[in-house]
Amino acid sequence: MRVLIVDDIPSNLRLLRAMLEEDKLDVVEAPDGVQALDALERQSIDAIISDVLMPRMDGYRLCQEVRKSERWRMMPFIFYTATYDSVDDEKLCYDLGGDKYLRKPSPREVLLAALSEAASAATRRPPNRAEWRFESDDMREYSERLVCKLEEKHEDLARRSEELEQARADLQHANLELESRVQQRTAELRVANHELEAFSYSVSHDLRAPLRHIGGYIEILLRNCTGQLSEINRKHLQTVSASARMMGELIDALLELSKVTRIELHRSVVDLSALAAEVFADLRESDPSRAVKLEITPGMNANGDPQLLRIVLVNLLGNAWKYSRKRADARIEFGKTTGAAVDTYFVRDNGAGFDMAYAGKLFGAFQRLHGQADFEGIGIGLATVQRIIHRHSGKISGESIDHQGATFSFTLSAGDLGQPDAAS
Hints:
alpha/beta, five-stranded parallel beta sheet
């Protein structure tokens, strides 16, 4: 059996086709009555399932044209509609020559049963064409009902348009309110950050003088009272002196961290390769006995603040130098990988590495993943590096596999390598 399905909505056609083809029926599609008549002319069709409301020629008119034809007037015809769903609509479908009337959506079983009933009804249809009325009362009723449906559609579309306009206005108002709140919170956060930085700077700066006094007086005691101190008391004073020095280093580190956050950013084109070579030369001078192989990719230029980027390399290369000192074949590499949007720079060493389970603590202030007895330090360098990278709109991450060295990768905002920036 070959069924012609007529509907102007593609999703409805797909659903009908799926249900009919599941029962091994052949399916022909048409988007309106005009193309449905064309399909009837070109192909052998056994039944028609048609929507009512369609452009150019609707289902009512299609049924009339089919019933007027000597060739097709006995064709089983099923109306399948979601718009014309009243009792009067159903009566008109039968008055115009329809064999079955179904409301969308109908289950597959109902649809197949309707096809069978329509085919049976077609065999009982009067063969005399004169008994069918195609104008007068039926056409007038059809026209009135069509106008009514179109008016209902127009009213429904107008109502939906008003609802959409109101929803758009509500959304616009909500967006403006949200933007205002974000700006307010951002301003509050900026003020809070400035206050916190100022407090940190002030406290750190004010602590330096009393610490210098403590350290100085302890040195005086150790120098002038050596003969009067017991060995235990001398060690106690040395411990206090060392702790004062450590605290001084922590304060200096806090001041450095505060400085890189507060300092104005002056961008220019920076030769990172040359900068890395200078930093590494200073490291060699600090410990000339070490033999470390250094590999620097040449020609690495970036847009950034030269002073701050030097601090980045001092810390990253300094860490690589420190944590690889127990390797006889120590190796440090500074290079980059080129990306579509932004380049990624990396510092890689074959030193002690770290446990990736604690990688989330790497960039926290005063966080250390190695004991002081193994590697000296105060745990502020990577926090400083992260703040500098973030000020350059970049990202930084660290990776270590089975403690076999470490790789720190960072990006910087692309900027314009030909146009130095003034300030951030």
